[in-house]
Specification:
alpha+beta, 8-stranded mixed beta sheet, 343 residues, 25% helix, 28% strand
């Protein structure tokens, strides 16, 4: 038997950021990853404090941005790599009315720290009304972030690349492991979890394209109109993603692909080639709050789920909240406590 402080089930943003808290506080753990790509692994990695459809912000946005910056510095101290690409999002305006609304929002206390008053006109793309940039926005180097963490876990004998079998879990024992706590960070996989299958996560399917542009953009930052466009490697770009709450098929949806092609063509007037189409199922919650806490009958069985489209910000920020709750008895915010669903 091998004894560990924690077992983590799932290796998306929730699992990785919680593992970081354990590394930071020198807790022993193993993390189970069955090998398939989750929604986190194929995500855009956008870090954005503004809802760019309505020009509003969201709950705890400023605190989450600040905490993410600090956390990425902590991670860099042991990976020797900075995964946060600090290139601001530029929102392409649809019309003059949107520009006026943006400018009005820059004067508010809520949006002033995030919306730049200076507008830009960009070459290569169609933007007759210009663009506005989002201060404190960025994106994560998703591929390197997960790849480096998996290599680190493997090197430290902390990575178990197999599907977790609930039938083998009994009390504080799982197969050859004894543990103090187990944290389920399974995304939509939680629907098969006999301890937490009742939590109301909703699958929101998202597609994105990897495209090769015939005319390279003259900048490195992220563009946003209907979807996000940014460079990922020499000549190739990420464009996505869609939000399909009613689509459940575990396959590429042609309608979503066409939707993305049309969206890109709206502002990129040159030929482009689609090299890949990817999709994932984001675990969302109706009240748009993550789900944290322990099972009512198993006090050391915890769930960490429902990060939604803001997986990086939610995953990072609430990993500390969950760790402090488990280790130091800190009360969870009622807005995120699983007790709001487990009656």
């Amino acid at each position: 038997m091998k004894n560990v402080d924690y077992i983590i089930v799932g290796s998306g943003y929730a699992g990785i950021f919680f593992a970081h808290q354990l590394l930071l506080h020198q807790k022993s753990f193993v993390i189970f990853s069955e090998g398939s790509k989750s929604a986190s692994h194929v995500s855009a990695g956008i870090v954005n404090p503004v809802v760019l459809k309505k020009f509003t912000t969201f709950w705890l946005a400023a605190g989450q941005i600040e905490f993410l910056t600090d956390t990425m510095a902590e991670i860099e101290s042991y990976t020797d790599k900075n995964y946060l690409i600090k290139e601001n999002i530029h929102r392409i305006f649809h019309d003059e009315k949107e520009k006026e609304l943006w400018l009005t929002k820059t004067e508010t206390e809520e949006l002033g720290p995030f919306l730049n008053k200076e507008f830009h006109h960009l070459e290569t793309i169609i933007n007759p009304f210009g663009t506005g940039s989002v201060k404190q926005s960025a994106r994560l180097n998703v591929e390197d972030f997960f790849g480096d963490f998996f290599r680190l876990f493997k090197k430290n004998d902390q990575l178990i690349t197999e599907q977790f079998e609930y039938a083998e879990l009994a009390g504080n024992i799982y197969k050859d492991f004894t543990f103090k706590h187990i944290v389920f960070c399974e995304g939509m996989g939680v629907t098969a979890n006999p301890y937490f299958s009742q939590i109301p996560v909703i699958a929101n399917k998202g597609h994105h394209l990897k495209v090769r542009l015939s005319e390279k953009l003259g900048h490195e930052f992220t563009l946003k109109k209907k979807h996000f466009l940014f460079p990922v490697s020499a000549g190739t770009y990420y464009y996505g993603g869609t939000y399909d709450p009613n689509e459940r098929e575990n396959e590429i949806d042609d309608f979503a692909t066409e939707q993305l092609k049309e969206g890109l063509s709206e502002f990129y007037p040159h030929p482009f080639e689609i090299e890949e189409v990817n999709y994932g199922f984001r675990p969302t919650v109706k009240d748009r709050r993550p789900i944290l806490g322990n099972h009512p009958d198993h006090s050391n069985y915890f769930v960490y789920n429902g990060l939604g489209a803001r997986g990086i910000l939610n995953g990072c920020y609430f990993s500390r909240e969950l760790f402090e709750h488990i280790e130091n008895g800190k009360t969870l915010m009622p807005e995120v406590d699983v007790k709001r669903f487990l009656k």
